[in-house]
Amino acid sequence: MSQNEKNAFAIESHSIDYVDPSERHGKVRDLFTLWFCTNIAPLAVITGAMSMLTFKLSLISALVAICCGHFFGAAILALTSAQGPQVGIPQMIQSRAQFGRYGALLVVLFTTLIYLGFFISNIILSGKTLHTVVPAIPVPTATVIGAIAATTIGIVGYHLIHKFNKIGTWFMGGSLLIGLMIMIPHINAEVLAKGSFNLKGWFAMFGLCAVWQISFSPYTSDYSRYLPKSIGIYKPFIYTYLGAALGTIFAMSFGTVAVSIGSTTDAMEAVKSGTGLFGYVLMILFLCNIIGHNAMNLYGAVLSCITSIQTFAGQWMPSKNVRISLSIIVLILATFTALWASSNFISFFLNVIFALLFILVPWVSINLLDFYVVNKKSYDIPSIFAQDGGIYGKFNAKALIAYFLGIVIQIPFLTNAFFTGPFANIVPDVDISWVIGLVVSFVVYYAFNLGKIKCNRPAFNANA
């Protein structure tokens, strides 16, 4: 890799293709700043406030639920992130090794839709935030500015995204720390007496935090695939784990404390009123964070979309120009959608996403089990790109059966804004559907591959 390509402002030359060992570079600690900064976002602050506003938890029980949920979910996120240096390809195209060339398409399409939805939601949020910071800029104009800024970072790609979050970690982390220090003196006996521990609320918040982390899993190796393979598994795991868990815990706790000491039910208003004049500084930094976070949504969505297209294109390997062109198309369509969307689009979309995440949970089980146990951290890269699927074939029946069983078994236990299953309250007031899906897919896929798992040697070498 040339020095120019390592420049943060040089447009990334890869799309979904394999990153050769000769092109690997970077520092593993950059995974900490990436996942720490990107999770210190307004949406995390708002979600943290739900622990008290929606689930009526006390401040202490809310903070414990937030910590436990993120420490649990981040382990899954970090395990997927650690795959990047070993395989050198984005997360979604790697799914072909588990499900087959065409079998992976369902998960890839679903992931594309999720991150396109997140991109649109954050475009709306960035427009509203910019208008709040600079009222002279109309919301539609602010929306377009936010969309273009995020797309520009996403087009430049991997290196600028990492650089943006490396710098942002210091500004966002430091500012939230100052804001927290301003608010903590207002925590008194009256504040601590608000809400109470209740099983429904605690597990709901725990599950929300765990799923928050899991929902990032389909594109984690996108941001670690340039790292040298020699760094192994542990280092990318621990840096991703600590960054993702601590960043989100920090942001959600910030929102929880803000609403606990305030009288408003609006989390961002509570932040502004609870931090005084410093609240305006936070709003500006939150705007920057939204744009940086949304660049990741665009980048991940475009890579997943390219993966879908390439599935039907034989040996054709999309260039960076395809990634750039598709990014611009997404920018145009998403911006028009954001300008057209109703005022309650974000809340409606989030309800849809959290309702559909049960489709993602079985994929996580199969992905981790297949990579770490069945194939022993080794994939045949040429087969992943082969037109006939190579050694992985076009469909992997074992993975698909385990996947669909994991989905179907969750349905009777589901409870969300659109559907409540007949066994949704088998554990009173606690949604356990995602846990069941996670376990069932794992057990079924493990049973299907028991013979291969017992073999102590890797089945093949991952040579590009």
UniProtKB/TrEMBL annotation:
<keyword id="KW-0812">Transmembrane</keyword>
<dbReference type="InterPro" id="IPR001248">
    <property type="entry name" value="Pur-cyt_permease"/>
</dbReference>
<feature type="transmembrane region" description="Helical">
    <location>
        <begin position="62"/>
        <end position="82"/>
    </location>
</feature>
<dbReference type="InterPro" id="IPR026030">
    <property type="entry name" value="Pur-cyt_permease_Fcy2/21/22"/>
</dbReference>
<feature type="transmembrane region" description="Helical">
    <location>
        <begin position="432"/>
        <end position="448"/>
    </location>
</feature>
<feature type="transmembrane region" description="Helical">
    <location>
        <begin position="348"/>
        <end position="369"/>
    </location>
</feature>
<feature type="transmembrane region" description="Helical">
    <location>
        <begin position="324"/>
        <end position="342"/>
    </location>
</feature>
<keyword id="KW-0472">Membrane</keyword>
<dbReference type="GO" id="GO:0005886">
    <property type="term" value="C:plasma membrane"/>
</dbReference>
<protein>
    <recommendedName>
        <fullName>NCS1 nucleoside transporter</fullName>
    </recommendedName>
</protein>
<feature type="transmembrane region" description="Helical">
    <location>
        <begin position="400"/>
        <end position="420"/>
    </location>
</feature>
<feature type="transmembrane region" description="Helical">
    <location>
        <begin position="238"/>
        <end position="262"/>
    </location>
</feature>
<feature type="transmembrane region" description="Helical">
    <location>
        <begin position="32"/>
        <end position="55"/>
    </location>
</feature>
<comment type="similarity">
    <text>Belongs to the purine-cytosine permease (2.A.39) family.</text>
</comment>
<keyword id="KW-0813">Transport</keyword>
<feature type="transmembrane region" description="Helical">
    <location>
        <begin position="102"/>
        <end position="125"/>
    </location>
</feature>
<feature type="transmembrane region" description="Helical">
    <location>
        <begin position="167"/>
        <end position="187"/>
    </location>
</feature>
<feature type="transmembrane region" description="Helical">
    <location>
        <begin position="137"/>
        <end position="161"/>
    </location>
</feature>
<dbReference type="Pfam" id="PF02133">
    <property type="entry name" value="Transp_cyt_pur"/>
</dbReference>
<keyword id="KW-1133">Transmembrane helix</keyword>
<dbReference type="GO" id="GO:0022857">
    <property type="term" value="F:transmembrane transporter activity"/>
</dbReference>
<feature type="transmembrane region" description="Helical">
    <location>
        <begin position="199"/>
        <end position="218"/>
    </location>
</feature>
<feature type="transmembrane region" description="Helical">
    <location>
        <begin position="274"/>
        <end position="292"/>
    </location>
</feature>
